[in-house]
Each structure stands twice: as structure tokens, then as C-alpha cells.
Amino acid sequence: MAETYSGEFYCVKCKEKREATGDVVVSESGRKMAKAICPTCGTKLNRILGKA
After folding, report:
1. Residue 38 in contact with residue 13, Cβ under 8 Å?
2. b/e per residue, 15-46, with b = 16+ CB within 10 A?
3. Where are the domains of the chain?
4. Which residues have C-beta within 8 Å of that of residue 46, sequence separation ≥ 6?
5. Other Cβ atoms within 10 Å of 1 Cβ, number
6. Could you tell me the end-to-end alpha-carbon distance of the chain, in angstroms, rounded to an integer?
7. What DSSP designation does 30 have?
8. How does pLDDT run across 9-21, given as a tens digit for each residue?
9. Domain 4-51 is of which CATH architecture?
């Protein structure tokens, strides 16, 4: 089962923090990142969570 993250993301298009739920993935550099979609404008959101 895929890990999910629910919390605040910063939307660079809206320039505001948004509440969203996204999937946790490991980037190429080895960091855990949560990826979601802004509920207001539809832009992709990323949040770095820390080392994997």
C-alpha cells in the first residue's frame, strides 16, 4: 500500500498554503517528498519531508 501525506503544501501559483492529501515518493536524491494537486488552481504541489 502506498504511503500518503495529509497536511499543508505551499502553492507557488496561488502564493498561499493549502491543505491537501498526496502520495509520498522518494526523489532521485534520496529525499522523501509528498506530491499533491492544489484544490483551488490545479497546480502540482511538492513538500520535502526529509531523508528516506
Report:
1. yes
2. eeebebebeeeeeeeeebbbbbbbeeeeeebe
3. 4-51
4. 9, 33, 34, 35
5. 3
6. 17
7. S
8. 999 999 999 999 9
9. Single Sheet (2.20)
User: What is the rounded CA–CA span in Å between residue 23 and residue 28?
Assistant: 16
H/E element, 10:
strand 4-11
Given a cut of 70, the residues of the chain with pLDDT beneath it are: 1, 52
42: left (phi over 0), alpha (psi -120 to 50) or beta: left
What cell was used for 50?
526529509
Q: What type of residue is 14?
A: C
Local structure of residue 40 (DSSP, 8 states): T
Q: pTM, whole model, 2 decimals? A: 0.81
